[in-house]
Amino acid sequence: MAARDELVERGAAGLTMEGVARRAGASKETLYAWFGTRDDLIGAVIEATADDSAQRVEAALAADATTVDDARDTLAAYAESLLRLLTSEPSVSLNRAAMTSAASSDRLLQSGRQRIGPVVERYLAHLDKHRILRVPDPEEAYRTLFGLVVRDTQIRVLLGDPPPPADAIRDEAKRAVDAFLALHVSTRG
Asked: What mean pLDDT is predicted for residues 88-93?
């Protein structure tokens, strides 16, 4: 996506509709017609980036997964995607911009966490309803899962550490989900 590439190359402060249009081979007018404002375009980048992390969870909800192994696989895929997302160059650029702008911060929260978190919370409630996991408070359980997955990794990358390699992200995601399941495996019959 041209906007994401422009964001990574120039940062949120340097992202312009003209630059994105040039990179995309489109006109500024077309971008304004599609997205409205520069902030709306940035919001679309946030949403597109965040959507990947929720796709597996949405698919599991649609498929009505019903075993602990299904839950482990779904949550591990989500966790890996989330950690990959939060340490990616576009996410780092967006988060750095959000730290300096209340409007960007609000947009990042609305298009990211506040949109994707409830999808995972619905999945956790589904697992509780089907007695796969014990999740009396899906919102609190999601916070726990998020904390176990992200830990201090995103902060370290925002402060300049290199992002972890793919295999380390996969291993961290699996460890986080195993710890989460240890807290929430249902003993109900």
From this structure: 85
Write the CA distances from 139 to 37, 52, 100, 182, integer angstroms. 32, 20, 28, 18
CA distance 185 to 132: 7
In one-letter notation, the amino acid at residue 139 is E
Q: For residue 55, which of 88, 77, 76, 70 has the smallest C-alpha distance?
A: 77
Is the pTM higher than 0.85? The answer reads: no
Domain segments of the chain as ranges: 53-184
CB atoms within 10 A of CB 130: 14
Instruction: Give pLDDT tens digits for 158-172.
Output: 999 999 999 999 999
CATH 3.40.50.740 given to domain 53-184: no
- Tokens standing for 4? 């994401």
Neighbouring residues of 124: CB distance < 8 A, sequence distance ≥ 6 = 133, 135, 138, 141, 142, 145
Indicate the burial class of 133 (C-beta count within 10 angstroms; 0-12, 13-18, 19 or more): buried
Count other C-beta atoms under 10 Å from residue 142's C-beta.
23
Q: Tell which residue, 61, 56, 124, 59, has the closest CA to residue 85.
A: 56
Using one digit for the tens of pLDDT, what is the confidence trace for 23-51? 889 998 998 999 888 878 877 877 777 77
